Amino acid sequence: MVPAVTVSRVTNTSRYLAGLCGTALGLCAGGWLILTPYAFGYPGHGRAAVTALATGGGLAVLCTGALACWAILWRRKLRADGVLPARPTRRSRRSARRHERAERLVAAARQRELEVAPDPAQVLTDLRALLTPLLADSGVRLVPAPRTSAEPPAAELPVTETPAAEPPAAEMPATETPLAEMPVAETADEGLSPAVGEEAADEPVEVPVEVPGHLRGTRSAAFLATPRPAAPAVVTLPAETLPEDLGRPADSLLRGAELLMVGTGEEEAW
Amino acid sequence: MVGRLAMAALVVVFLAGAWLIAAPFVLRFQPSGAHWIGASRMDVAVGGVLVAAGFTGFFVALGGRVRELYQESRR
Fold it and tell me: What is the ipTM of this complex?
């Protein structure tokens, strides 16, 4: 069983061969017609000689062009079938040169950028280290960076901005009250509760907690349009449930830096 | 475009052959009722070959093209 591709190539070959043979025969006939008046001694300017010369000349020119056309067609077909290799055109060569030049430029620019551009996380760390003493001097409490495994706990941080009046959350006595039963800060904020001062161990600690996600939860800048409240939402949580580095109000400078990083798309790096 | 030119050339070959067959009688360099002169015999012979070549070549090429169209329509 002969494959279909082979059959189609054979028939196409016969087609082009027929065209080539027909035109080649016409070319030979035209040449012969040009030669016959001289070969057979026709009268110099008789009708027979003029007819033979004119027809032969026209046939020769026409069949030469037709022969070229059939050859071009056959070569195209062979290229389309993959028998002949594809010939690169001038346009494709120019395009390849431009592409190669553009890739070189992009590679050079990328290398230069990598050499010059600083690490955004390192920039933020340096900024935090620079601003922390300034803010500590001005008495503003800091929002600690999210804890990672590499960072020391909050108790070991060198900068402790927590006033002495407020013990850190880690030092607060433990309570067994579940989170859902904890009173909200607005109700406990009055300071007139009879439990104040009597059972300090059972009293929930009031810790200002930043609502998670409002700084770098999403990439949208919708929070910029809506003015933020001056004071963060205060939720009363048991001391054990709070992480050690939680419970410090945010300062505006570091928040601005974080917003800058979020806005520039460096959230992951941060 | 090139394919049409090639096919047209085969048609012209056929027409040139027909013209060569008819030329001795149309141009009257072959007297009627007399023996054929050498030019007339030559023109008719070459014209016959050209007619046969043009006819065969044209229809074989046309058949191949139609077959290609059928194959392309099946893909």
Answer: 0.90
